[in-house]
Amino acid sequence: MQWQFLSKNVPKTLEDLEQLMLDNRQITDPEAFFEPVKPSQISLKEVGIDPKQVRKAQKRILQAIEKKEQILVFGDYDADGICATAIMWEALYDLGAQVLPLIPHREKHGYGLTWAAIQELEKRTLPSLIVTVDTGIVAIEAVQDLVAKGVEVIITDHHQPEATLPEALAIVHSTAVSGAAVAWFLARELNELAVQKSLDLVGLATVSDMMPLQGINRSLVFHGLQAINKLTRLGLKALIKVANLQNKKIDAGMIGYTLAPRINAMGRLSHGLDALRLLCTTSETRAMALATIVDDTNLDRQQLTTDLMQIAKQQVIGQKKESLLIAHSADFHEGVIGLIAGKLANWYAKPVIVISTRGEVAKASARSVPGVNITELIRTARQYLLEVGGHPMAAGFGFEKNKLKELMAHLYEQARESIDPLLLQKTMEIECLLPFTMIDEKLVKMIQKFAPFGQANPEPVFALQDVKIAQVQTVGNESQHLKLTIQATEGGSELTALAWGKGELAINLNPGQLINVAGVLEANQWRERITLQLIIKDLQPKE
To answer: On the chain, which terminus has fewer CB atoms closer than 10 Å, C or N?
Structure first.
């Protein structure tokens, strides 16, 4: 793996390093970065939301509440959409609205405001007003159909729009924040008191949807984490317990790798409605029962992903010369193709499309690499598609299965012509070269000032050069992890370094050997004792 240093400067003091990290992130206002403004003080224009559209939406919703009209909050089945639905439903319910939520079923209804979803609504009494959250911006025909049936539609969304917008009563939209955040800012204008209680959900959704954690998004996650750690929402408290995170301070990493995947699992393999019920319940007993269901479903999702990943890997092995990787199979479960695409994109450093061809309509999920707008690339094949939507880094689309070969040929060719090969090199961004002597508790505390970490504000990876191995071990039930004790070449204090899943490297490493190592520094607390350790991201033995 190639190391890409964000800065060639080598810091000598903590102050040097702090400034270097600020410069690497292009942060020009440290005070605003370290003390993010409260979300209640952020204006709609700062978010990129049109205040006029919000006023239209606000007026119609309040009118519906006053007249006791039925309002439907129509969401999405991923963590962002489920959080968005909970935020809007809670805000309206608190105002006394006659409001119901609807989370579509992935296989039964498909993604978004589809014909199947509308037919489901028609089985009941159609509401007077639908408010979409985290969806709707490309639902041109569906909105047209609903309006013809006498249903007014307010869209709140953050996905990339088409050239033509739906003819909705109001469109509250911004691509700068998550779908849950767009919903939250509209809900704030309706019920400011209630939405302060849902900052935890905005923070969770912002991390789960991988929004860049600077500016407004940093504020939402910073204050959202504070709300989560108060453990006032019974559903999150129960979810934290079944995930074995109780008595720990929840951070963005725990959301991204532990909590959000559990919420997402319901929409992938079961029904997102149970995840919504979990977030909204006011019963501790009900919360634990639902959290257990969510946790069990996530275990099933993990096993299914592992099994299907092997099929996908075998298919993309022969595509080494392509700028885009595509895997397809009738065995692929629609609920996990996005996860498989993400893992392959991370492994091969190329955009990946994974397609489930189970039915006559094939469903695909795509994940990209920085610099390649995968949604725009897919839209070049519009003539083959039934639907498409997404972000620069992720997309979903559907098409008639008999067009698979033509579609693949088009996408391969488009990728070859439009993607710069330099964007497809597997690299690791390194903050800087760090002197071993700087590693202490003060350094780790300074680094934590930059948290929460995520997109556009990554947890810093430092390079340590010419360090000496003092001890080599393998740990874990199957010796699957590597544990080193390292120190500076000239000796002195030692540091524990762990490489998860890299136990096989131990056979080629020996005490006294010099290595270059890149990793993340963290404090490991056991009872009253705090020790520092390095989580290894890459290791290069010296010849």
So the answer is: C
